[in-house]
Structure formats: structure tokens, C-alpha cells
Write a structure and sequence with these properties.
By secondary structure, the protein is mainly alpha-helical. The chain is built from 7 helices and no strands. The protein folds into 2 domains: 73 residues, no CATH class; 68 residues.
């Protein structure tokens, strides 16, 4: 791993810990404050030490923003969609998610039908369709997560 990539990840690991506070972060992940500090230390002795994924996941569940996940997405060239309202939500059943999925798909197709009626799709029409496609993607992700964990009731 290049020094530049390592430094980038360490800066975001530090931002994650500071978002929560070092005391709370240590309590949440079961690591000492010293260990957490080593994960983002730029000291040559700690240059190869990075925050484990399970620690980052536990901390990001409590943080105001997924700092490490966003940094890794940036490095991979991936764009994330941050939706605070759906964060850690698990209130609906898979059945209601499938209904929502079909409703969102119907809304996307209706928007497409209206947009293409004149033979062209304007910038505003494209933005509305993109918004519907994003909402459809979010529901699909929720269905996928529930299927993976076996929550089918």
C-alpha cells in the first residue's frame, strides 16, 4: 500500500474516532485509547497498522458519518449515497419492501413515460428519473440485506 493511500485511510480513521470521541470509541469497540491512536498514528512504528473493518463498522454505526467507508469508496472510485433517514433501519418486513420496490419501479416507469412523450428527455426530467432510480436502488439494497440475513417474515 502506498504511503499516500495509507495516510488517507489513517486521516479518515482519526476523523471517525474524533467524531465519536476517543473515550466513547474505546468503549464501543472494546479497544484501548492507545490502540485506537495507533490505528491513525503517522509514526513510522505504526505505519502498517490500520483499523480493522469490524472496529470501523462498530464505530461508524455510532458516528455521524461513515468516514472510513467513504474513504475506501473514494479510493475504489465508488460513489456512495448517504441517506441518514434509512441508516441502520430495520423496521419493515421483506414483504413491505417488495411492495415498496414495485411501487418505486412503477413511479420510475411513469416518470419515464411522461419524460419520453415528446421524444426527448430534458435535464430536469433526467434528474427526476435519476432520483426515482436512486430510491429504487435503496429499496433493492434493503431487500438484499434482509435476504442475506434470512429475515423473510
Amino acid at each position: 500500500m502506498s504511503d499516500q493511500v495509507g495516510n488517507y485511510l489513517k486521516k479518515h480513521s482519526e476523523a471517525l474516532v474524533k467524531d465519536i470521541g476517543i473515550e466513547a470509541a474505546a468503549r464501543i469497540c472494546g479497544k484501548s485509547k492507545a490502540t485506537l491512536g495507533r490505528y491513525y498514528s503517522m509514526d513510522p512504528d505504526n505505519s502498517a497498522r490500520f483499523m480493522p473493518l469490524d472496529v470501523a463498522a462498530r464505530l461508524e454505526a455510532e458516528a455521524s458519518y461513515p468516514h472510513v467507508t467513504a474513504a475506501m469508496a473514494d479510493l475504489a472510485g465508488v460513489t456512495l449515497s448517504w441517506n441518514e433517514a434509512r441508516r441502520n433501519a430495520s423496521g419493515s418486513s421483506i414483504n413491505s419492501d417488495v411492495v415498496a420496490l414495485s411501487q418505486r419501479f412503477a413511479m420510475l416507469m411513469a416518470e419515464y413515460h411522461v419524460s419520453i412523450a415528446d421524444g426527448t428527455i430534458s435535464l430536469n426530467e433526467a434528474k427526476r428519473m435519476l432520483k426515482e432510480a436512486q430510491a429504487l436502488q435503496e429499496v433493492l439494497l434493503e431487500v438484499k440485506l434482509k435476504l442475506e440475513e434470512g429475515a423473510v417474515g
